[in-house]
Amino acid sequence: MIRFIATVCAAICFVPLQASIAESLNIYTHRQPALLEPILEAYTKKTGITFSTVYAPKGLVQRLQSEGDATPADMVITVDINRVHELSETGLLASLSSSKIKKQVPAHLRDQSDKWTALSLRARIAAVSVQRTKKSEVLGLADLVKPSLKGRVCTRVGSHVYNRALLASIIANDGAAAAREWAKGLVKNLARKPQGNDRAQAKAIYSGECDVALMNTYYYGKMKFNNKNPEQKNWADSLRLVFLDQTGRGQHVNISAAAVLKASKKQAAAVKFIEWLTSPEAQLLYTEVNYEYPVNPEVSPSKEVASWGKFKIDEVSLTDIAKNTPLAQMIINEIGW
Question: Residue 266 belongs to what domain range?
């Protein structure tokens, strides 16, 4: 169920650094509140603009379509390329029309029709057991389907947006037939029925249930420094991160992204906020607080994230990946991933 998250309030004992052209912005988001709130708070402190957010893990497009021009939302912040592409197909999004955003975000990380931009990157890498895998065993996606890994791989369900986008990227690069064969091979190598989230895959490696898993990089940071659940530090310590296909097309990445709604009466303020989100100041927050990779090439990852290693990105168009997600889902259903 969609639920309202408490409004992020401005502090009362300061003078904003710049004049606000809107007192508040309303955001609908797929993004977990704990990951978004530090960034909203920083912008409130800088400008005086406050935010009301609606956390909507499911049904966001349908809600916006039903609300139409009456929606209170000014903008959307989402995770996963297909979700933001689905929004762009509804005709509800305004053009960003920002030279700053175009300067700060490479073209392959922006919508071809200028309806959205990526805000941060997460690489979907292979997490492998430090103790039970050789460094040469897993170097690319093709290695995950080799017979030597039979009964040693674990993943969350294939239909999850992260895995679906990965398979869609294989379709975009190699075609549907090759993607189908890869997915079949992956399923043959599974140690257990697909289940749980990415942290559950790390736990399975730690416990010896499997040796290799697909995982988004930022989960590694979240586990490594998890003081609330210190057992997750052990899970992280049992892993080695492998950036895939570094001698080939490069590592597949997914995104968080932002877009502005046509129905908003505060489009200029929303675009200005997105300009800030893609600026060096905010990009540093993404990498330092959320362990994600910046989309702005002028910004380096935090010291912790950088310690995981540099990698070459697969620069296939994110729009092309999004267009192939329905076919990816058909393949996932067909092979029972």
Answer: 3-121+253-306
